[in-house]
Design goal:
- The complex is a heterodimer.
- Chain A is mostly helical.
- Chain A has one domain.
- In chain A, helix 1 runs antiparallel to helix 2, helix 1 packs antiparallel against helix 3 and helix 3 runs antiparallel to helix 4.
- In chain A, 77% of the residues lie in helices and 0% in strands.
- Chain A has 5 helices and no strands.
- Chain B has 9 helices and no strands.
- Chain B has one domain.
- The chains are: A mainly alpha, B mainly alpha.
- The interface between A and B is medium-sized, with 12 and 14 residues.
């Protein structure tokens, strides 16, 4: 087995491990914000690692470039969507952010629009 | 004064009789035409020897379209696709008529700065992808309906992320209505051109064919794709705008 395939399989298996971590977090964490934090993992790390592994696995210039572009799209879109969901649920006071001892985000809310 | 009250029921019954005979004559004519039409259809000969086999074998030679689904949708059954886009037009008209009391929704401030800036980077690529799906409908999977939905998603992104007044300033409902009507007119115009130049409604235009696999080939299929794409995109955007009568007062 060439070393290229070993690297590809290593990246894919690591991505799958992060996906399993995401499922564990979604099941075990207590409220909305920690679950969003866990759910963001599956696209920002897991899907990007799997796309990198696939790009190494096919090893053809145009195909790999397309797959890596998809990975870059994930890197752009998923943190933005997670941010939008978290901000909306904070402003709607889902899961009561006032109950936290440290609430640093309320200091910033007046400034970023 | 008494004569009309006596003769009116007779006239009404005569009118009803006339109506019934006319309706039965028309129904009999339609039934005869349908019987003639269905008697011409080939019988079912199994999955491997029927009409699908013919399309798989000679669809590329007949239409010049590499995507056989597009070949069926916009060449063999283009009349059916015209009916589908007419259904979309009827749905848009009905939803606008029922739901929209006023065309311009109340403005909102939109989402946060991070989302606005990220979508400012990503939206041109979404538009490029939508136009790619529309214009390459005869070469790769996709086509007018799918690409039109992607183009409509851009309008929805604008009104959710940047506030509804932003999209209204860029593409007003009048512009969208003009785009939708233009798409439908493109479709109908190509159909009429098929009558005049090839002898059948929506016949594939022969002088537009080129080498198979290039972007401008496959007769009139790419142009019908473009018309259907703009029609579907503008129609879905109009439906979305009619449904957000009361927008969000608070900003998320």
């Amino acid at each position: 087995m060439p070393i290229r395939l070993i690297a590809a399989y290593f990246l894919m298996i690591t991505g799958s491990a992060f996906a399993i971590v995401t499922v564990l977090g979604l099941l075990r964490f207590p409220d909305v914000y920690t679950r969003i934090h866990a759910g963001a993992v599956v696209l920002t790390i897991s899907a990007v690692l799997v796309t990198m592994g696939t790009a190494i696995y096919v090893w053809d210039f145009f195909l790999s470039a397309k797959i890596i572009l998809i990975g870059i799209f994930f890197l752009f879109s998923n943190p933005m969507a997670t941010h939008a969901i978290a901000r909306a649920s904070y402003k709607r006071e889902i899961a009561l952010p006032k109950e936290y001892e440290i609430d640093a985000y309320s200091d910033y809310l007046g400034r970023d629009v | 004064m008494e004569i009309p009250t006596e003769t009116q029921p007779e006239v009404e019954s005569l009118n009803k009789l006339m109506k019934k005979t006319l309706i039965s004559v028309v129904l009999a004519g339609v039934a005869f035409a349908l019987y003639q039409n269905f008697s011409l259809m080939p019988g079912y000969e199994g999955l491997n020897v029927g009409l699908s086999n013919y399309i798989i074998e000679s669809g590329l030679k007949d239409t010049g379209s590499l995507n056989l689904i597009t070949a069926v949708l916009y060449d063999y059954r283009a009349f059916d696709s015209l009916g589908e886009s007419t259904v979309i037009f009827g749905a848009v008209s009905g939803i606008v008529l029922i739901l929209s009391r006023k065309m311009l929704p109340v403005s909102s401030k939109g989402l946060s700065f991070i989302v606005k800036r990220t979508l400012g980077i990503m939206t041109p690529f979404i538009a490029l992808f939508g136009l790619y799906v529309i214009t390459h409908g005869h070469l790769t999977p996709g086509g007018g309906f799918q690409g039109g939905v992607i183009l409509a998603a851009i309008s929805i992104i604008f009104s959710i992320v940047y506030g509804s007044a932003f999209d209204y300033r860029r593409y007003s409902p009048q512009t969208k209505t003009a785009l939708e009507t233009g798409g439908a007119l493109t479709f109908l115009g190509l159909g009429l051109a098929g009558i005049f130049m090839e002898g059948a409604f929506l016949h594939n235009l022969g002088f537009l064919t080129a080498e198979t696999g290039t972007l401008i080939s496959a007769g009139s299929i790419p142009y019908i794709n473009i018309g259907v794409g703009f029609k579907v995109g503008a129609g879905l955007a109009i439906i979305f705008y009619s449904m957000i009568q009361k927008t969000f007062e608070e900003d998320f």
